[in-house]
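A reminder from the course coordinator: this example appears on the midterm review sheet, so study it carefully.

Given structure:
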């Protein structure tokens, strides 16, 4: 039986079906915005993912402490994704002590989903800094890397070739194994960042249309209080 498949039905007459791919999107989400949500939706739809698990971190390892506390970031993220089928809020990093290293999160996810292909969704900037991550060499043992790109963008192939993963050209190449592959997936790129939203709020500017209305309304209440 290939990786990415599981047996269904006991005894005689058992058959094999393709396991359902699961997307993984980690981050601080400080706050969540359309630059997180739209690419995640497009990756889920274009690759046929069963779900995308949004995993807010508790103690980000590569940046300063978050602007919003963990409970507020979690609440805004829950508001942002609660009406989108297939989007799942995963709290595991918030309940784990210490720094939120992705390799630990993926090890935990693999224990929960031993037969499903896991697809770690990364933006281009995160992917180019991937080799600076904690124990980054182990990450392809647990998951595929799905790198979101702008239409027509290019990437240094020497960088990809140096990684312990195999580049594939289509999403069908991910279902054949549970981990260890890289896909460059073109998506609509929105030039929105959480730091930009925080800076605009500090200037007293509206951030409407940069994030969902319900998230904006709740965020405004948080800022006022």
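Designed residues:
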């Amino acid at each position: 039986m290939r990786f990415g498949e599981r047996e269904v039905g006991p005894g005689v007459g058992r058959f094999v079906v393709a396991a359902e791919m699961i997307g993984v999107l980690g981050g601080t989400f400080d706050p969540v915005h359309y630059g997180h949500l739209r690419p995640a939706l497009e990756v889920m739809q274009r690759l046929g993912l069963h779900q995308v698990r949004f995993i807010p971190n508790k103690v980000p390892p590569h940046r300063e402490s978050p602007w919003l506390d963990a409970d507020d970031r979690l609440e805004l993220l829950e508001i942002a994704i609660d009406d989108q089928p297939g989007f799942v809020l995963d709290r595991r990093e918030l309940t784990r002590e210490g720094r939120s290293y992705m390799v630990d999160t993926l090890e935990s996810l693999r224990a929960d989903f031993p037969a499903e292909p896991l697809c770690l969704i990364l933006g281009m900037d995160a992917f180019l800094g991937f080799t600076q991550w904690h124990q980054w060499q182990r990450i392809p043992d647990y998951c595929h890397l799905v790198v979101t790109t702008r239409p027509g963008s290019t990437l240094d192939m020497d960088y990809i070739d140096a990684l312990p993963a195999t580049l594939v050209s289509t999403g069908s190449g991910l279902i054949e194994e549970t981990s260890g592959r890289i896909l460059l997936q073109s998506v609509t790129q929105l030039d929105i960042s959480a730091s930009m939203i925080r800076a605009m709020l500090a200037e007293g500017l509206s951030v409407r249309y940069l994030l969902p209305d319900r998230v904006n309304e709740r965020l405004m209440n948080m800022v006022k209080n």
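The radius of gyration is 18 Å. Residues 20-191 form a domain with the Rossmann fold fold (CATH 3.40.50.620).
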